[in-house]
Design goal:
The structure is a homotetramer of 157-residue chains.
Chain A (H helix, E strand, L loop, with lengths): L8 H14 L2 H6 L2 E5 L4 E6 L5 E3 L4 E2 L1 H19 L9 H9 L2 E9 L7 E10 L4 E10 L4 E10 L2
Antiparallel strand pairs in A: 1-2, 2-6, 3-4, 5-8, 6-7, 7-8
Helix pairs in contact in A: 1-3
Chain lengths: 157, 157, 157, 157
């Protein structure tokens, strides 16, 4: 039975990547691309695009785009960080785990105007648990300018 | 000189509405419409749309869309709430004020999955000042189900 | 066996009250008193006292006192709100539940200086669940002046 | 006139230290001591004490104490970080600046139970400005165990 199929760590990471990058229309709309993804790290990129502009005179990223990218970076990292702690690696249990993943709360600190051509989001887990995980995220532009910090609390397992 | 043109309260509200609804591409992309706007209240609506979906199986609004709409509701209300306190009503001073408006930090509490056909964001000012204003926001669906709370701190004037 | 003793709702509320008000030294130090407590409401009071002052010239409550009182109001309400959902009312299970209660994150919005003789904290549950609950809290002084808002995310059960 | 007395950077740091450590009764109650303080860094310590306990069985620091210490670390750093940007170094202007300092909002992420004998709070400025500054804070125990993160938004100048 396919539900009892065992998944490797990489298969699970690929599964999550596919889910977030190819099956979530809003992430595609923002043009998110994943450039690094392990059970302890993540790097997401988006390119500046006219439709992502919040302020036409200043040509800066909309704060909602920043929030979206940081939330996805935190959520994907939480999903990946849970993998080494999973007792079962069947596809069924893994999918069940993923279904319960959700953002409880998100804080974004906007440090500087979102100028740039390409933006990179990274995340780190600061609290992990079998019910709740907390991450901190950062958004930088292609020159390394730090644009925003995020803090996210996620429901897991 | 046009810069010294005096604006009425309604002209200023219309100006802000035009800026947020017609000149910010990302707000247009999300399909935001303003259905109430005074110096003490705001109501923004968006319709569910395939491109705004965060989870294709559950067909719910992406958390980043929620954050975006709440941030805009808070920011627009802060801009409107500053009008009665303005010493000068010239277009020049008003535009200068608007330029300095920015989100310092935003917290979103996701209460329930974002199911629905139409979503309504409202906001109230909980702290006003000549440097910083704080608002609380809410997102409900068309059945009155409460989907998210927001808290935003904004730089003003 | 005492561990299998059944507790009534009121006995559980009394148990939580005793734990927070009489067995937590820091709550006693702040002089917290509970003036209303049900499974859906809470009211905590503290009196202004020289030792709680944060600013000697302005004679206002220290922001840390505000955070403390709001956190306790939220945490106690979360503990009470879980009672009607408990499958078992044995003392043992109830105590086990209480032990896992903890604050995950807390946001305080300071609205006005903490002037006053007596301060009242109230709370409401905005998200309840079997793993995580979220509350919003308010602090007012004896004249009804609104001093602070809080938002707390708590681990439960 | 004393109000026009010029203060050196070190005199200003000493002035702020005296204000926070000796003139704020609640900080003294918590036993705060400052062990490092420059215009770009701060280290505050408190010792565990029975009266600071939040949970008598687990003997851990009350979450309100954590919030208090992090808020003070952030606020003091913001006050110090403003010094190099001050146009005037008269005592009068410096005192006026200090008076307008206040916490707008504070988020605390509680990562682990507050076990320990001695706790150290540190802070860094992540956004500085002439109206608002944002800091991130951390609390560790004497073994380097990371107990809490904080994020604070402060009104300045």
């Amino acid at each position: 039975m396919i539900a009892e199929e065992q998944l490797s760590e990489q298969q699970m990471l690929d599964y999550i990547t596919d889910m977030f990058m190819n099956q979530m229309p809003f992430n595609e709309l923002l043009g998110m691309k994943i450039t690094d993804y392990t059970t302890s790290s993540i790097e997401l990129k988006i390119n500046m695009d006219d439709k992502l502009i919040g302020n036409p005179i200043r040509k800066i990223l909309h704060g909602g785009v920043t929030a979206s990218v940081l939330d996805v970076a935190g959520g994907m990292l939480v999903a990946a960080a849970a993998i080494p702690q999973m007792e079962s690696c069947t596809r069924k249990d893994f999918e069940k785990n993923l279904k319960s993943l959700g953002t409880i709360d998100l804080r974004v600190d906007y440090l500087r105007p979102g100028w740039g051509d390409e933006f990179t989001a990274t995340a780190q887990v600061i609290r992990s648990g079998n019910k709740v995980a907390v991450t901190r995220m950062e958004l930088h532009n292609q020159e390394g300018i730090h644009i925003a910090f995020g803090t996210g609390t996620y429901l897991v397992g």
